[in-house]
Amino acid sequence: MAFKKSKSDGLFELLADQSQYLVQAADILTKIIGADPQSRSALNDELHKVEHRADEACHTVLRKVNQSFVLPFDREDLYELASVVDDCIDLMDEAGDNIVLYKPGMLPDGVNTQVEILRNCAALSHDTLGQLSVINEKTRDFWIEINQLENQGDQVYRKMVSSLFENATDALEVMKVKLVLDVIEDAIDAFEKLSGTIESIAIKES
């Protein structure tokens, strides 16, 4: 279903604006993982700036929701939507911090798969949130795709953790690496929560 032109248009635009930071955060996190240790700190500063702008965008959405009498969706769903987008970005920012602060010696190859999954989740979410004024079959396909990506992420994560413990010789290094793997996995899980929120909205509006 499509919503008629109304004051809600501004809210949809604000959600689309907020969602662009999902893509930006995922791209910078990918660069951090691929960079040499000396370059990571500067990239992480960029990631912090994205996270700060995303926070401001989230607050703008929430203010709009608070100030609007007529809303396209349930107020609680809109709060949840903006908050979970913010959670996804916060977790990617935390992943960058964990890499820079804890300085793991070497990250498993599977981390590249993890961040590629994050980038796909971010792109799909940005696209869907940018078109949320029209709920159709494409909207419903979104949470199926995110669920598949999250399942893939789970498999990669479990395999890496198993290998990490099986082959470890340095307990401190294991802890450093696992802190990175865990928060990236949490970020992927947050995208699944985001897709569930959009699914809930779509079902109510169908």
From TrEMBL:
Transmembrane segments: none annotated. PANTHER family: UPF0111 PROTEIN YKAA. Belongs to the UPF0111 family. This is DUF47 domain-containing protein. The lineage of its organism: Bacteria, Bacillati, Actinomycetota, Actinomycetes, Actinomycetales.
